[in-house]
Amino acid sequence: MVFSAAKMTAEQFLDLGEDPVGVRLELVEGQVAIFPSQTPHHSRAVMKLILALAGHIESGQMGELFPSINTILDPYTVRRPDLLFVAKSRRHLIGKKAMEGPTDLAIEVISPSSERIDLVDKFGQYRDARIENYWIVDPEARTIESWRLEQGAYVSTGSGRKNEVVNLPPFADLQIPLARLWRE
């Protein structure tokens, strides 16, 4: 990850437009952070999660699932979760350029270059921005962890590993066979 020298607001960052080819930009405390593109393990896990969640969300008319969308966390921080879910009752958060407030679920899939960022930095930033649920998926370790915001702190709401089947909030009635997420 590389940071810019100039400090900017979320509004200025969103006015930059689309990312250059091969990199992903996020705004972290007023500085532009440059991330490399996804690894194959990462991309596979994201795609399989989309397949597991999208049909369930659509059939229950629960809301909308988005991959890799800018999400304004505060006036100087714009992160881009690998996946996020916005409940039907909170569609007003879907802006023209970004999610304009805390979503119901953010999912990060760990890559070798993002482990500390996803486990520490984003964990705290999503908590402080009041994102209700946070899932952390690690394709290398073949694990998933789920956290829910309660009284301003994230508390564990479940986890799974390898070939287990999990039910995680906010989709307690959805069974996710983890074996489908991992590359053989």
Describe this structure in words.
This protein is α+β, with helices and mostly antiparallel strands. The chain has one domain (38-180): tt1808, chain A. Helices cover 21% and strands 38% of the residues. It is built from three helices and 13 strands, in the order E-H-E-E-H-E-E-E-E-E-H-E-E-E-E-E. The chain has helices at residues 10-14, 40-59, 115-128, and strands at residues 2-3, 23-28, 31-36, 63-67, 71-74, 77-79, 83-87, 105-109, 133-138, 143-150, 153-161, 165-168, 171-177. A six-stranded mixed sheet has the order 4-7-8-9-10-11, with helices on both faces. It has a three-stranded antiparallel sheet with strand order 1-3-2, with no helix packed on it. A two-stranded antiparallel ribbon has the order 5-6. The longest helix is centred in the N-terminal third of the chain and has 20 residues, at 40-59. The radius of gyration is 16 Å and the shape is globular. It starts with a strand and ends in a 7-residue tail after the last strand. 32% of the residues are buried.
